[in-house]
What we know:
25% helix, 2 domains, FAD/NAD(P)-binding domain, five-stranded parallel sheet, alpha/beta, 22 strands
Amino acid sequence: MRTVPRKTSRPRTGIADVVVVGAGHSGLAMSHRLNELAIRHVVLERGDVAHSWRTERWDSLRLLTPNWMSCLPGAEYDGPDPDGFMNMDEIIDFISAYAEKNQAPVHTGTTVLGVEPHTSGYTITTDRGDWQARAVVLASGACNEASVPACAQDVPDSVFQITSKDYKSPAQLPDGGALVVGASATGLQLAQEIHASGRPVTLAVGEHVRMPRRYRGRDVQWWMLASGLLDQCIDDVDDPVRVRRLPSPQLIGSPEHATLDLNALTAMGIRLAGRLAGIRNGKAQFSGSLRNVCSLADLKMRRMLNTFDDWATTSGVLDNGAPAVELEPTRIGNGVPLGLDLGSGEIRTIVWATGYRPDYSWLKVPVLDRKGQLQHDGGVVAPGLYALGLPFLRRRKSSFMHGAGDDVRDLSNHLLTYLDQCAARPASQVAFASSA
Length: 436
């Protein structure tokens, strides 16, 4: 696994046109573009390049997109397995090599402590000194903190709790049954892995996005890209807030190209329950709407596949004649539990696969709503302040690695115009975030 040497070893103060916060794939893609535009900038990273991939993912994780989709501006996958799925080491190596190739001005081991308006832009305070910049790009990611429901505090002390952010492998867990809460890609993958370790698993299922790994002889991501679904813009959806909060689709990037859905899990012996509604007196209570939730997910999947079929017909792409297929509805057997006594010893572990949220506690600019969510217009947060790497930032593909290129192009053009306007006027006449 590739490591990147630290480039900063002492406190300092610097000046740049742009400071990029975060040296993941989004921040590095922006750095590549800023280099092309000859814009003076630095990238500040709290750990090493690809820090989150190195420290905040489970060991067996693979990308949900095939390798041929693993591309960044100026870099494409050139390995021997384009239809495979990168594992953790390969992801880290790909991103680290990208930083080295582009000679990105990354300052590793530099934790940003504050970003606040300044008369000529922004002051970025770090544990290694301060920076002054006309503009700031927030590329610190959407998965900084695990989102855990308040009822977690009501779990009995005898039950071990862990979030998907801290989970690495089943070896961390005590013997005995596990309750996995959440049925997105993460929840399904962890439920499968924990069950394979010999532990009985119950999966609490709420709203989810069902999706086959392959359809009509092609990877489902090929269909989503070719049909234009991944290029759908945020302005073209009816409810932007809702689509940005949808769980990740039920996919796994396995060498077998397997479909991982609720049917696959129940076939393994994993027990399904409804959405975790609360915990009272040491007893987990589940919603009784599991059948309805699964029927709705099946319906939405069928609509998506119909969209692929219609596109294949109108475009003349028949995919080697592979016919349209009807996938089996989600099977919900009898005896779905409405509750579990967490003090009985049946459940020894709860894994919270209930999503993530970004951490903007260091952002001293009034751009967060009452729930702490970043308010932005397609990544434009405030004058001179931008965001990258968030779900459906500008397009449906924004959260995928290959989606960074288009978002970076659009935002860098906006940023360049902004810097030109700043240069053309006295500093006292420039409307920075302090007057936004």
